[in-house]
């Protein structure tokens, strides 16, 4: 009998000890979690680029804005004061915002804008995410200059799943207009034409040596021979996918969108706006100065784009000083051709999760969304000056033939939470209203979408699959599709029309990458899956801002679950009113 009791007692004792240790470890982890308080003042600041000074909207007078550094598990409290002349909101791109949709930031989706003179405090906790995210304005085209890096270090007491780099450097790729970006989009909205393309790309706010009046401020990244450093690369550009390369050096990709990936080696990376990629780079070349450079991946045939190249300098500390009066230019990398879809595809299809993952296999919501452009006929009575798109039309864009219209009197989340009628409907189509040859020669009768504020309702816990199908209406191009409030697994991507009979065989159900922004290939498709475990209203949109302006968006309404921990929190008291 005694032996029998002992045999039970030992496992129980072990379990008790394990439980105590687990609770202690959790308590230590929670005790180490910090609250970071920041103040963001949105203000006009004189910024000189390309020989001209503009009154540029910035955060705290900085361009780019401040880098925020936290650990996984920490809480951010950011008070945003608007001292600019425009409405503003801040979006924390890629942050899951579990139950805190009020802090997500997209204007008229989860909040009304912060009016000039107003303020709002964003409060949210980083849960289970490590790597590189970023923050940006989510109001008109303010994010052209209102953006910065959000670096999430591993939980206190844990480390990276790769050797710790000697140093870490955020590399923010941006776009610069030699004009006021708000004027650029307002003119396009007035005329119905495409907006003017940018005048420069930037690395950490600087165009670099290949532009006028710029070489004295070119960004320099210092390295020591032999060391391995981490570059946190962010495409903060408004409207352009970008190739990025460092002359004579290779990258080891270790993360993307704040998720670790199976490391792979490449000499070039491609990022759509919104995407982040963490790469290790080893200083294993002769000590010298090497250009890091970025330029467009332009997949839309015939569409105008900014064809310039931005550069920064990777400078070895032991690089020999040139003789007096001698100028030695850094080595310039050879970047892919602007339309090199093969290189872009090789890169995007190389991603795998760092380990085997639990992919939802039983699907509750099987959705099929077309994504692409359109042309609206000139409205009756409108002047020709407001219809300067192709053949006297106005540019538009849509998902499943619905061009998304933002409300103006309430945010969608407020309307949902308070039961305000007439702000939105929940009849966004699960499949295209008309089936057609999406990537073929599309009938002109399908080029004009309807305009509406339609949401798609999801039950809490629903397992969702979405086929994102690009169209060739007007022109086909690569679309970076971003879903707020969620990460999703990208199971596969391909060209042409998605075929469920043959393409499902290509699904990676073992270790697909976890992303928040998917590059839907030009004239192709991507398939994503996620579990609807975060209640709220979450916009999904193309991260080319010109396309979201034209309506390439929709939103999910995710219902509350059963328990309090499955429900949206109450709105903050200082939530801006419309």
Automatic annotation (TrEMBL):
<keyword id="KW-0560">Oxidoreductase</keyword>
<keyword id="KW-0732">Signal</keyword>
<dbReference type="InterPro" id="IPR034285">
    <property type="entry name" value="CuRO_2_LCC"/>
</dbReference>
<dbReference type="InterPro" id="IPR011707">
    <property type="entry name" value="Cu-oxidase-like_N"/>
</dbReference>
<keyword id="KW-0479">Metal-binding</keyword>
<comment type="function">
    <text>Lignin degradation and detoxification of lignin-derived products.</text>
</comment>
<keyword id="KW-0964">Secreted</keyword>
<dbReference type="GO" id="GO:0005507">
    <property type="term" value="F:copper ion binding"/>
</dbReference>
<feature type="domain" description="Plastocyanin-like">
    <location>
        <begin position="42"/>
        <end position="156"/>
    </location>
</feature>
<dbReference type="InterPro" id="IPR033138">
    <property type="entry name" value="Cu_oxidase_CS"/>
</dbReference>
<comment type="similarity">
    <text>Belongs to the multicopper oxidase family.</text>
</comment>
<dbReference type="GO" id="GO:0048046">
    <property type="term" value="C:apoplast"/>
</dbReference>
<dbReference type="InterPro" id="IPR034288">
    <property type="entry name" value="CuRO_1_LCC"/>
</dbReference>
<keyword id="KW-0677">Repeat</keyword>
<keyword id="KW-0052">Apoplast</keyword>
<dbReference type="InterPro" id="IPR034289">
    <property type="entry name" value="CuRO_3_LCC"/>
</dbReference>
<dbReference type="GO" id="GO:0046274">
    <property type="term" value="P:lignin catabolic process"/>
</dbReference>
<dbReference type="InterPro" id="IPR017761">
    <property type="entry name" value="Laccase"/>
</dbReference>
<dbReference type="InterPro" id="IPR008972">
    <property type="entry name" value="Cupredoxin"/>
</dbReference>
<feature type="signal peptide">
    <location>
        <begin position="1"/>
        <end position="33"/>
    </location>
</feature>
<dbReference type="InterPro" id="IPR011706">
    <property type="entry name" value="Cu-oxidase_C"/>
</dbReference>
<protein>
    <recommendedName>
        <fullName>Laccase</fullName>
        <ecNumber>1.10.3.2</ecNumber>
    </recommendedName>
</protein>
<keyword id="KW-0325">Glycoprotein</keyword>
<dbReference type="GO" id="GO:0052716">
    <property type="term" value="F:hydroquinone:oxygen oxidoreductase activity"/>
</dbReference>
<dbReference type="Pfam" id="PF00394">
    <property type="entry name" value="Cu-oxidase"/>
</dbReference>
<dbReference type="Pfam" id="PF07731">
    <property type="entry name" value="Cu-oxidase_2"/>
</dbReference>
<dbReference type="InterPro" id="IPR001117">
    <property type="entry name" value="Cu-oxidase_2nd"/>
</dbReference>
<keyword id="KW-0439">Lignin degradation</keyword>
<feature type="domain" description="Plastocyanin-like">
    <location>
        <begin position="168"/>
        <end position="318"/>
    </location>
</feature>
<dbReference type="InterPro" id="IPR045087">
    <property type="entry name" value="Cu-oxidase_fam"/>
</dbReference>
<feature type="domain" description="Plastocyanin-like">
    <location>
        <begin position="428"/>
        <end position="560"/>
    </location>
</feature>
<keyword id="KW-0186">Copper</keyword>
<dbReference type="InterPro" id="IPR002355">
    <property type="entry name" value="Cu_oxidase_Cu_BS"/>
</dbReference>
<dbReference type="Pfam" id="PF07732">
    <property type="entry name" value="Cu-oxidase_3"/>
</dbReference>
